[in-house]
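Box 3.1 — From sequence to structure: Flippase activity-associated protein Agl23
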Amino acid sequence: MSAAEPSDGPVRIDRVAVAVVALTLAALAARLVGLGSRPFHWDEARVGYWTLRFLDAGAFEYRPVAGGPLLYVLDRTVFALVGATDTTARAVVAVVGGLAPLVALLFRRGPDDKSVPRYRLGDAETVVLAALLAVSPVLLYYGRFLRGDVPLAVFSLLVVGCVIRVLDGGGPRYRYLGAVALALAVASSGFVVGSVVCWLAAAALTVDQRRLVGEGAFARVAVGRAAERLRGSPRSALGALAAFLVVHVFFYAPRVGGSIRPSPTTIEAAVLGAPRQFYAVRVVGRRQGGEHELLPYLSAHVETLLAASGVVLALAVVGFLADRYGRGPSRPVVAFHAYWAGASLLVFPVITEESAAWLTVHTVAPALVPAAAGVGLLVRYGARGLDRSDATAVAVAGLLGLALVGQLGVAVAGTAYGPTTTENPLVHHAQPGDDLNPFVDDVSAAIEGNRGTDVLFYGSTFVPAGPDGATAERPPVSDTWGNRLPLAWYLERLGAETDGVRDPRELAATETPPVVIADASQRSTLAPRLDGYEARTYRLSLWDREVVVFVR
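Predicted structure (token representation):
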């Protein structure tokens, strides 16, 4: 077509896609701004420390006790490129969480999708889902936290979105994207086992729901068609399997010299060795003494959910019930995610080894889909009021909308950006109660130009009785080394040489380095022996962990 010829018509702007992209940019900004303002949690410090060890030694091997390999492998590259700080360490999680609103487009019923109206979300619901993925307090808080929970949740939603696209007759690109997303989910966290269990339970309940409403024959046909479409052609199935294995081997293969050495042994270690290790540590190890009572964990999980995401859960319940018992046909996409969220209430408190607020990520993420349906119901109610010129309906919808936005804003301000105190329901007890930037500054200045030991840990709290018990070349590590967290991360960042003594006799026989760290209860014991040192105390947790740092 020449420049003089008219075009076929005006270019249509997809306002829904534009809105989702805008929300994605806002989500990224919300996670990246002030990302390093909160000191590292003990779990974050473990990941950061071993990533630095990986960067220094160039060797890496998957160990189930340390979590999935995704963050170690990616952060190693980040540290090599831009350096290691609290901000750069959390950047991978922040970017993955910030891009989560884009996943909402996979659940959307587009303007040309007339043949699949029962599977997708409407335009308004898609934008709402993107907004909830951007600002949900739980996803926002742990999207600024160095753990694999948010990446697992985002990649899990991406897997399900791609499956829905495949079921709706989408091209093979969704099969390949879904395979890559599944491999990334597996690399993110061992909790992927819980996600798979929840998927199976949700799929069974969604199919059974069709039978309960008198559509048993339809359900059988739908299951057969779904199995056929998921299987696809042999070429696309093999391509998806290859995509999964390539990503899986990339993250799980042992590394020497910072790189993977392709060999049958390397592939075997990634494909077969990693699952065997996971089973030995997380299943057999749990049977040998890692059990816990379910009710305390379940009640703590629900309590945190209600405190931090009560609005989202209420919207999810309304959205599910309205879709299930409303006048129109129910949508499997809403039912599936509601059942997924419901199953997670039981599954994750069972499989976890510690009751912690980050478990709520795995319930909130799927609950956002029925929550979006609940907000969509409110939008439709207000729209009908406008069509009928019903001022009361419009006012009610507007007030409810403002109340929801206000509640979410309060929750975000009080949790994601709130204080690191016990008043914040998302703050784990292993979060330091004090700012550790002064510690970093003081130690950095004190050890500059020093030769030999830079930092000495004092006392049985930090130093084991036997030799080498407080080293951390690789996980698992001793409790005494764990007691040094999160300081171990900051000291490793500074390149500090550390050592330890257990009692005054050993201290007297040691040349005192520029920095000495001890339990706060040892302050009066050490102060007379460290003349010329300045002492400062730091709370390394919300309670029961305070240290004194002597700096020369």
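Summary of the box: The chain has a mean pLDDT of 87.
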